[in-house]
TrEMBL record:
GO cellular component: extracellular region
Compartment(s): Secreted
Tree of life domain: Eukaryota
SMART domains per record: C1Q (SM00110)
Name of this chain's protein: Complement C1q-like protein 3
InterPro entries, A to Z: C1q_dom, Cerebellin_Synaptic_Org, Tumour_necrosis_fac-like_dom
Entry keyword set: Secreted, Signal
Limits of the C1q domain: 28-166
Keyword Signal annotated: yes
Primary localisation category: secreted
Pfam families reported for this sequence: C1q (PF00386)
Length: 166
């Protein structure tokens, strides 16, 4: 009796392995793309003000799976068509005001704004889900005459990841 159960079990196992093999052909491994970075690697810095809108370059890379984020330019370049989630934060420890925006190519997607008040220290964040094509770029731009402050506590971050490929 035990021999029959064992044979039935082995047949079932072989059948399941065959099904798993078929599924992996139908559903190949999904690409893995995710990054997270902060503005400064060390020290403390006031970034800005600049005379024109300026792309922020997040130099302290926590993770860059898929290597789509370029820490030399601050630009995420899409290598896999799909739907992505991006988020950024900004911190200011004084004057002038902070105003930054996330761009897809040259299109403004979302922004943050902080007006200096009595408290002098503020932070803001924003994010969006975007459908992107290969070659699209996503980056954060600091508006002219605005500043952000960062130090080893990494108040200013830019992160994103692939939700699903299309």
């Amino acid at each position: 009796m035990w021999g029959m159960k064992y044979e039935a079990f082995m047949w079932g196992l072989k059948h399941l392995r065959s099904k798993i093999g078929s599924l992996s052909i139908c559903f190949p491994a999904l690409p893995k793309i995710a990054f997270s970075a902060a503005l400064v690697e060390s020290g403390s810095w006031i970034i800005g003000p600049f005379n024109t809108d300026t792309n922020l370059v997040y130099k302290k890379v926590f993770t860059n799976i898929g290597n789509c984020y370029n820490p030399s330019t601050g630009i995420f370049t899409v290598m896999v068509k799909g739907v992505y989630y991006f988020r950024f934060s900004a911190y200011n420890d004084g004057t002038p005001n902070t105003n930054a925006a996330m761009f897809k190519n040259s299109e403004r997607i979302v922004s943050i704004w902080d007006t200096v008040g009595e408290d002098n220290e503020d932070s803001a964040s924003n994010g969006a889900v975007l459908e992107l094509q290969v070659g699209d770029s996503v980056y954060i731009s600091l508006h002219a005459q605005r500043v952000v402050y960062d130090d080893i506590n990494h108040y200013n971050t830019f992160s994103g990841f692939l939700l699903f490929a299309m």
